[in-house]
Amino acid sequence: MGLRLAKWSSKAVPEAVIELNQVSKRYGSGATAIEALSGLNLSVPRGCLYGLLGPNGAGKTTCLRILSTLLEPDSGAVRVGGLDALAQPRQVRELLGYVAQDVAIDKILSGRELLQLQGDLYHLNRAERDRRIEELSEVLGMDVWLDRRCGTYSGGMRRRLDLASGLLHRPAVLVLDEPTVGLDIESRAAIWRVLAQLRDQGTTVLLSSHYLEEVDALADELAIIDGGRVIAAGTPQVLKAALGGDRVTLRVREFSDEPEALRVQLLLQACAGVRQVVVNRSQGFSLNLVVEHDGVVEQLRQQLKQADLPVFALAQSKPSLDDVYLQATGRTLMDAELAIAGQRDPKAERKQAMR
Amino acid sequence: MTTTSAPATPTLAPAPGAPASAPRSALSELSQETLALTRRLFLQLARRPSTLVAGVLQPLIWLVLFGALFAKAPEGLLPEGMSYGRFLGAGVIVFTAFSGALNAGLPVMFDREFGFLNRLLVAPLRSRSSIVMASVLYITSLSLVQSLAIIATAALLGYGWPGGAGLLLVLVILLLLVFAVTAMSLGLAFALPGHIELIAVIFVANLPLLFASTALAPISFMPTWLGWLAALNPLTFAIEPIRAVYAGHFSLGEVVLVAPYGSLTGAACLGVLAVLALGLFLLIRPLLDRKLT
Ligand SMILES: Nc1ncnc2c1ncn2[C@@H]1O[C@H](COP(=O)(O)OP(=O)(O)OP(=O)(O)O)[C@@H](O)[C@H]1O
Ligand SMILES: [Mg+2]
């Protein structure tokens, strides 16, 4: 693998290790077809910890399955490490570690036996394979239970075993599909630590998630994906900064009524340096607004005073990724999740995905 | 939950400049992946031995019960004055190998259904036929072991012993049959939608194929229509040569099967089995190619 890494750097360097270009994929056919990806573009620089953020059903898994060569796109180009994944899938598989969203393990084998099998499928020689298993067992804290049968493992243990099997052959690119979903805080932190460490040692890591905080805290760069296409991409700082301004939440009284809220809204809209004033009905008619700089807040206080309005609470914050998402899609990530909930049929999807 | 130790630990990522393993020949990689997959199947078997036990018990029961049922059949009823137990032995040996091989597709079907197959498909396998090869290796050795157990038991019951050279011949015949049936079962495992359907097919195929063969009675006992079925049944092409081996007069040129459509020599029977095995593998190949790429 190191060999190949060296090869890329000597070439006229394709800086992006992962490149998806206008990738489209639909499931099924006819009237019931679902367009999972529609012209998705993604470019992940080498050595980057990259987050793919999107609500349920956004197309994250589809995108990662295409990358891992499990699925062929209907159209578009897929390149990994400078290789065409559609033309040279085997070489791409050698380069990639893939940790799927739902772990399929063989309950009757022990974790160690599963890793040995995995090592043989990646053609490690026996000594290297066993040394590597010991190494990962230590790093991921698996030594106590690695010789127990997989059927007895908890969710966190399975996830770590799967991470280990993705890392066994020292892949240059690690792809993980929602690696921390449903885990306790401690296991989650353990996995984050490993991912950050991998990135520091030069591995390119691409993970999907629908946790804003996770991506915000962990990722060097991210893409927000919604409805099968990327709607924003960049570093978290740049994306947030691009929104500009600070977020302010204002309540004039603990419990306002609508007429008063609307009156305040009008007043605020008239102020210079204020953009976008929204009355939040579900939060007791509080007001959400964007201000261009700190000075504006002082002016606001003056204005309110002159109009004889009290200020019960005023909170100011930098824009979050949620704001980025809101700006790009017109809804919050939470709303998007709620909208899709109950619309999917996991059983049918599993059947569809069966080979 | 244990926490991971401090990150003064070994490196996780590729060591720059050093390839993980020296490049190896395609053949050695192919055998590594195939053997690893076969090993998994045997580990499963060792930890869930019930299939092995049932696979031996069922034919044993046939052998003991059916043998006893006709123990007092009038002498001279069967060709060459053979005892029924001796007659039955060949049938049960073939049936054992057959029903073992019929199950070949089940583990593959479960891997498809539970997504374990995907784990294999993201790995850089030299050839994805390793997955199929592993099943063939596993089921072949398993059904040969089961058949040997039955051969030994039949000998203990006084139903005869084929002798050293004869045993080799019996094993060759069983191998051909097992290949053919395994191919069919693997084909079904990729063609059918789920394990319920596969089990149904296995269940439905099993007994009729046994009864419509010469395992339990010679063709001369059967009404014409059943005789025809038995004479076309692949099991018969395995049973009759083995029976001849047990009777101690097998030679390739000798007629072993008198069918309504004519008489077949031992060589012809072997040829039919070989063609069947080859044909079935060629038949399922496009299906496997489609499902595995
Ligand atoms: N095998 C399948 N058959 C049919 N439709 C599918 C299949 N897999 C996914 N879909 C549909 O394609 C769309 C994208 O699904 P995908 O699994 O890629 O989303 P996701 O972002 O991974 O979602 P989640 O966060 O729930 O894992 C969804 O509308 C989903 O219902
Ligand atoms: Mg998903």
Features:
heterodimer; A: 355 residues; alpha/beta; Rossmann fold; Alpha-Beta Plaits; 2 domains; 4-stranded antiparallel β-sheet; 14 helices; 14 strands; elongated; disordered N terminus; B: 293 residues; mainly alpha; two-stranded antiparallel ribbon; binds adenosine-5'-triphosphate; binds magnesium ion
Describe the structure.
The complex is a heterodimer of chains A (355) and B (293). The relative contact order of chain A is 0.13. Chain A folds into two domains: 44-74 and 87-236, Rossmann fold; 244-318, Alpha-Beta Plaits. Chain A has 14 helices and 14 strands. The longest helix of chain A is centred in the middle third of the chain and has 16 residues, at 185-200. The model of chain A is unreliable at 1-14 (pLDDT under 50). By secondary structure, chain A is α/β, with parallel strands linked by helices. Chain A has a six-stranded mixed beta sheet, with helices on both faces. The two termini of chain A are 29 Å apart. With 293 residues, chain B is mainly alpha-helical. Chain B has one domain (32-70, 77-291). Helix content of chain B is 68%, strand content 3%. In chain B, strands 1-2 form a two-stranded antiparallel sheet. The longest helix of chain B has 28 residues, at 129-156. Chain B is elongated. Residues 1-10 of chain B have low confidence and may be disordered. The interface between A and B is large, with 63 and 52 residues. The site of adenosine-5'-triphosphate has 18 residues of chain A, from strand 2, helix 2 and helix 14. Residues 27-28, 34, 36, 54, 56-62, 101, 210, 344, 349, 352-353 of chain A line the site of adenosine-5'-triphosphate.
